[in-house]
Amino acid sequence: MTDRSLYIAMTGASATLRSQASVAHNLANANTVGFQATLNGTVAAPVAGAGLPSRVATVSQTLGVSAAAGSLTDTGNPLDIALQPEHWLAVQDRSGGVAYTRAGDLRINANGLLTTASGLPVLDQAGAPVTIPPNDALHIGSDGTVSIVPQGQPASTMANTGRLQVVAASTRDLVRGDNGLMRAPPGATPPAPAAGNVLTTGVLENSNVDGTAMLVSMIQLARQFETQVRVLHSADESARSANSLLSSR
């Protein structure tokens, strides 16, 4: 019986630590543009093996990514975009593959490439990086079309330079990697580009992390961990007492 209580308390404490790490990660990204909170929980996991199924462990499990909308901030910056719910901006990841993000704080680098704030190239409808020629003004339409006033031309002269690749996909149908980017699951068909109004210009979507809720969760998890550690100490003391009684006979 002592062995059972030790094992259950140990797996519970381990799962609690993993849940605390997930909550800490969410809190660290409370001010990250477009970040979506990780949903984490603990589940019962029967221990497989010979004999009766009498042992049940506790494991930490990532349940997905929160699809809740973050608050919007009006910046007036023509390179800032906020995507419609369940829409994603296609970017080129570090390995050259396609990934998706909701971070809309875009930049133009020294080579004229349109990138995310972290330096990832933004892709167009054909899957190629978007390039921005020298210009006197730039506008991103609600359908993702990028228009500019070429450098030295009158303000009435507008030229289209491409269209951002924005896809529509449910959050639960995508998988988030360690770098925070979303991707289609292995073997799944990549989401198709979305049509119509897919974004708003001059606006940024903030992180959807609820800081207050995360702090409360952190306190609850800390108390759970303390309780589980006390159970471990109590079980250890009971085992020592039993061994002492047996050795004295």
**Total number of helices:** 2
Order of helices and strands: HEEEEEEEEEEEEEEEEH
Portion of residues in helices? Answer: 25-40%
* Structural Rg: 26 Å
- Give the biggest beta sheet: 3 strands, antiparallel
Distance between the termini: 22 Å
- Overall shape: it is elongated
What is the number of E strands?
16
Q: Please mark out the parts with pLDDT under 50 across 5 or more consecutive residues, or reply none.
A: none
Structural class: alpha+beta
**What's the structural domain tally?**
2
Proportion of beta-strand residues:
25-35%
| Whole-number mean pLDDT | 87
Strand order of the largest sheet: 6-5-12
Pfam family, one: LlgE_F_G_D1
Subcellular location: Bacterial flagellum basal body
Organism: Lysobacter yangpyeongensis
InterPro entries: Flag_bb_rod_N, Flagellar_FlgE/F/G, Flg_bb/hook_C_dom, FlgE/F/G-like, LlgE_F_G-like_D1
Overall description:
- With 249 residues, this protein is α+β, with helices and mostly antiparallel strands.
- It has two domains: 2-67 and 209-247; 72-205, no CATH class.
- Helix content is 26%, strand content 28%.
- The protein is built from two helices and 16 strands.
- The chain has helices at 2-28, 211-247; strands at residues 38-46, 56-65, 72-74, 81-83, 87-92, 98-101, 107-108, 114-115, 135-140, 145-150, 159-163, 166-168, 175-176, 182-183, 199-201, 203-205.
- The strands form seven sheets. The protein has a three-stranded antiparallel beta sheet with strand order 6-5-12, with no helix packed on it. A three-stranded antiparallel beta sheet has the order 9-10-11, with no helix packed on it.
- A hairpin with a 5-residue loop joins β5 and β6.
- α1 packs antiparallel against α2.
- The longest helix is centred in the C-terminal third of the chain and has 37 residues, at 211-247.
- The radius of gyration is 26 Å and the shape is elongated.
- It starts with a helix and ends with a helix.
- The relative contact order is 0.20.
